[in-house]
Amino acid sequence: MEKDICVRCCFNECQFPLISSSDGRVEVRTAIPKGGFSKLQKSKVKWKSNGDAVFHRDCWDTLVKTSRVRNKKRAPFVLSEAEKSLVKEALKTAEFHDSLDTVNSEASRIADLIKNAKHCVAFTGAGISTSAGIGDYRGKAGKWTEEDRESVSTDAALPSQGAMKEPIQKKPRVEDSDFAPVSNDGCTDDVDDDGVEDEDDNNGGVPYEKLRPTYTHEALCKLVQMGLVKHIISQNGDGLHGLSGIPEKKLSELHGNVFVEKCEKCGTRYDRPFYVLDDHASLYYEELDDFGSTTLKKPRHAKQCELCGLCHRTGRRCKKQKGCKGQLIDTIINFRDNLEEEIFSTAQEHAQSCDLMLCLGTTMTVSPANELVEMGRIPLRIVVCNRQKTDVDKLCVLKDSSGQQLGSRVFGDCDILISKVMQHLMTHDALQNWEQQRDARMKEYDMKRTES
What we know:
Elements: E1 7-8, E2 18-19, E3 25-29, E4 52-56, H1 57-68, H2 81-91, E5 95-97, H3 100-116, E6 120-124, H4 143-153, H5 215-225, E7 231-234, H6 240-244, E8 251-253, E9 260-263, E10 269-271, H7 279-291, E11 313-317, E12 327-330, H8 341-353, E13 356-360, E14 382-386, H9 393-396, E15 408-411, H10 414-425, H11 428-436, H12 438-450
């Protein structure tokens, strides 16, 4: 699964600049100063034109510590005020990757934890879907990271021209969760009138209908089938867990699903092969809220939600209950919306029964979902695989009375770690056979997303 990394460390003082898979690394992206990076004097970092940089873990730690030193005599080297600002800005985006040896070692430990668990639960976020083509929020190129950086990059100046500006505080974000939208209009940005996707205008992301389960999605489904994972609690709304084959009763989608709508009158749920949200109606209310007026025409079915201020109605009506004909609404939980009580209650029950929580691809910053992570039975065993640091990291490395580490903390990509874990949970032949069937499963997914 993993690729052999061989890149150069961007720290100019690094004595051994090549970074391979046997080294831990850090990837960051900083703000672009006014005039570009060429204006920096005696720069200690070779920043790329877009603000990206990659470092050995030790080199990055040295840079961060130096950027915080106030007494220049105590600093290991001189870092200009301009570059200190750039390092501090980059720190907000840092993504960490453990060495391959560390990943292999932790994969073995995690497999043992899964084998010995009586009620293992997986808690997933946008990070398990990034390899499918969906963006995340908190990564170095995440949706919210980019928005915050724009406010810095546009007018950011070197100290001689004025201090770097702090990011503008924006109003609460509609989709402030680990579920990251792919395309604002659901799927039409990159499709021309002839129905052909155009690479030149592909700026809206991958349409939801074209997303397919990643290795991690499929592995979790396999572990559920094997009885090793009892339940999946997901913050994602991309529908990939269900598409991979996770039974509805084994899945709690806390923030909804863009392929599921329900009747606001009788509650009947509809699982669709297409994106169900009416983004046009929501945009109508967004523009009214932001500007006081809009040129958009209000859809006849549109109704503004009292909580999130958007429109949940999809424009379709209920047909399953005789005489119902209630308006159908999407199931997505926007910022300020309440979670569906039954779904959250089921997730709570499994979280409280849990003796091993696998947290994959999530920073665990969205409440109340993140509260579920620490509800498990004592001793609390938590595994976290994510590129960013989290508040739960310290719990992963706690030790029991015998000195044994309770959980595991891995920095890196979920697909790489989980592929290693599966090697310890399945025989070689069984794993090879299952992985070789992925192409056949992809055809099944295609059929499910094209059903009328």
